[in-house]
Amino acid sequence: MIKNKSSKFDFLTKERHNEAIDSIIAFFQDERGEKIGIIAAEEILDFFLQTIGDDVYKKAVGDVKKLLKERMDDLDIELDLLTEK
């Protein structure tokens, strides 16, 4: 069941939102030979953002945490080298 539309999923810029809608419409036309309109494409986009948006966000945050930890570890090593001179 689709949750009520929430501003939590309104993070796309208007330009990026329109590009995503155009891509969905083009996908259905090119890959499935089906014509869908803007409203249907927006419903599909909203469905996927609501269904997997949190998972994508959590994965991105985890990736950033890992990258920052690696950078901090490198910085810690560099600072240790500076104090050894």
Automatic annotation (TrEMBL):
<dbReference type="InterPro" id="IPR018680">
    <property type="entry name" value="DUF2164"/>
</dbReference>
<dbReference type="Pfam" id="PF09932">
    <property type="entry name" value="DUF2164"/>
</dbReference>
<protein>
    <recommendedName>
        <fullName>DUF2164 domain-containing protein</fullName>
    </recommendedName>
</protein>
